[in-house]
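Re: weekly structure request thread

Next one in the queue (199 aa):
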Amino acid sequence: MKSLILKIVLFAVIIFLGYMVYDSINQPLEFKKERARREVEVVQRLKDIRNAQFLYKLAYNSYTPSFDSLIAFLKSGEIPVVKLIPDPEDTTFTKTIADTLGYVKVIDSLFGKRPGFNVNNLRYIPFSDSIEFEMDAGNIDRGGVNVSVFEAKAPFMAYLKGLEEQRIYNIIAAEEDIDKFPGLKVGSMTEPSTDGNWE
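Done, posted below.
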């Protein structure tokens, strides 16, 4: 009877230890999978901000640090639809004339093919419970030239919210050790770049 009880206890311990080994392997994989899933949406939102900033700069000759200004521009701004035609006075056929055919709403130009897109959510980091992107804009001097710059950032702590905190802290520490921003960002306030740090 004692040996049967001992076998049952040992079997339970083996099952428990097997589960613990499986869980210790599975947890990092699940974290990595969920992180990748979330980063797809955050990167898309950062690309949307970058595209909106490009058109804002085209209209106003500078970027904006304000989501209120950017969203208002997206809702009411218009951009010209231009057709390039050959210059009839040019016999070399190398010069063109820009012919404005009309205007299209900025929001339709950028997001018209994305049903259900809500421009008011542009400011919020996905999966963060409505935490706003950190956004700034300004000018820097590059070789005597005044260059407009902007930056939009989403920290790991914002969009990985709800996942295992120790793993998030480990990722943050690893990025900070190599002097990188601990999260996803597009643009730069110190360099004339509009690249994202995922590219």
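The helical segments are 2-60, 67-76, 106-111, 156-159, 165-177. The mean pLDDT is 86.
Next request, please.
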